[in-house]
Design brief:
The structure is a homodimer.
Chain A: H1 2-11, E1 14-18, H2 31-40, E2 44-48, H3 58-66, E3 74-77, H4 88-95, E4 97-102, H5 107-114, H6 118-128, E5 132-136, H7 138-141, E6 146-150, E7 163-166, E8 174-177, H8 186-195, E9 200-204, E10 208-213, E11 216-221, E12 225-229, E13 235-236, E14 249-257, E15 262-264, E16 269-271
Parallel strand pairs in A: 1-5, 2-3, 2-4, 4-5, 8-9
Antiparallel strand pairs in A: 1-10, 6-7, 9-12, 10-11, 11-15, 12-14, 13-14, 15-16
């Protein structure tokens, strides 16, 4: 069984989990988009704008940003409502793609529109055949088994103030938050981890990504990735019945990872950048 | 020597380190101001507004807030410039006080105006005879040996982006940050601790205080106190020569403490609230 799982792991592709606002100036360095393109190897990339209620402009923006990055085409996939998520022409868009990129918006739009549809199955198949699944902001949050949906930023975290929902499940035992330093979300990510410390918290700054392959991820981009590990947490009060209470959580292990740092998700251990 | 230090510790008073914006509605619960007043035992409290360039209105505000809290008087102490910090009538204000409360503003105003003056000596003497030293926002930051002065909030922390200065030294081996969750300051507090992990980071939310007696503090108020312990930090890049690099710091221990939680500064161990 362990062996089977390991083989399953080896067959799988790459996740590029982006904290939002990745730099995409057609004349800029575009470190993250460049890395996505590099891993596509000249193949076709699908831009899934389903997280947005108003996807107008997203395609043009990304099309310009990717223009000189040697993709074998960028194709938009949008689903106005759930009924469309089984349409044959929508599904076929993914069949010959080398990767898919989920843009920002609302993570609940992604899961409520494509969860348990043909599109979700196609995305999973793409991942299993070694494709690249990238997601920024809402597209990042949606990747985990259980995803963070809402919770106040930039204020004291209250134990009842966190909304989670089932995500796409492309990465297990992890919960992802984005726009992390920019929106002061440390408290809410700690709160999420306190709910079940089996889950590792990943807080990703803007213009920063965790590139996951197998059990390891590497950090790229201009910000940091924060890892919140509650394994040795000795006390937390999240199970108390008063939602207005302030989070109390003792003995949490935290890592701040910059570009080039790597992290082993199975061993829960960081490795510094070589430079 | 250890014994001497311990005895010295026993003689000392109480620090009330407040993260800013403590609730002071004359009809509100005023948990923090009430605790300050309770510890003054009907004595005189000095309101030191020296952190502010424009102290007008501070006294009236606090006078109303403390009105029914049974102080034996509230007296303002302001120092326009350093030359005044040796004036006899200014010094005498502190002689019969039971406590002093540093209001907000700029922590550099506090240290540059009163550092190494008669007022600083009087504050230290008040603390050593068992008095209460309270400080909010800038008044909180100034209490430590080395204090945080500036550093960007709500963005990725860069290793060169932190300004520290010598503080009043009322509490050793600690560095304090305030408005903590509200201004997304986790990154910069980690950065400060990375500079020398001997120093414990205390990040205090608004309307929240750490009440320090001897080696222990207790949390009061409506937010949380974050403790950043770098003792077991296995890697950091703060000594690298490129100030624009993003902080990388591995294996940091973090505690989030809510009202009633206690923390032993010597053992670096939290104790949960009894309720």
């Amino acid at each position: 069984m362990a062996e089977e799982r390991e083989q399953g792991g080896r067959r799988q592709g790459t996740l590029v989990i982006i904290g939002g606002h990745e730099e995409r100036d057609p004349k800029g360095p575009r470190k993250i988009l460049r890395e996505v393109a590099r891993r596509i190897h000249g193949g076709k990339l699908v831009l899934a704008t389903v997280a947005s209620h108003k996807p107008e402009g997203y395609y043009d923006d990304y099309d310009k940003a990717f223009a000189d990055l040697e993709l074998g085409g960028l194709v938009e996939l949008y689903v106005e409502d759930r009924a469309e998520a089984g349409d044959r022409e929508k599904l076929e868009v993914i069949d010959d793609a080398a990767g898919i990129f989920f843009s920002g918006g609302d993570q609940l739009r992604i899961t409520s529109q494509i969860g348990d549809t043909g599109i979700e199955a196609k995305v999973r198949a793409l991942y299993e055949r070694g494709g690249v699944i990238a997601g920024t902001s809402a597209g990042a949050s949606a990747m985990s088994d259980t995803m963070l949906v809402r919770g106040t930023s930039s204020e004291t975290h209250r134990i009842g103030d966190l909304h989670m929902a089932p995500g796409l499940g492309l990465i297990r035992d992890v919960i992802i938050d984005q726009h992390f330093a920019e929106r002061g979300r440390f408290g809410r990510l700690l709160g999420a981890v306190a709910h079940n410390p089996r889950v590792l918290g990943l807080g990703i700054d803007e213009d920063t990504a965790a590139v996951v392959e197998g059990d390891e991820f590497t950090v790229i981009g201009s910000g940091a990735v924060y890892v919140v590990d509650g394994e040795h947490c000795s006390h937390s009060n999240v199970a108390e019945a008063q939602p207005e209470r302030v989070l109390s959580m003792h003995d949490v292990r935290v890592h701040v990872l910059a570009a080039g740092d790597r992290f082993d998700l199975a061993k829960r251990e960081p490795t510094p950048s070589k430079r």
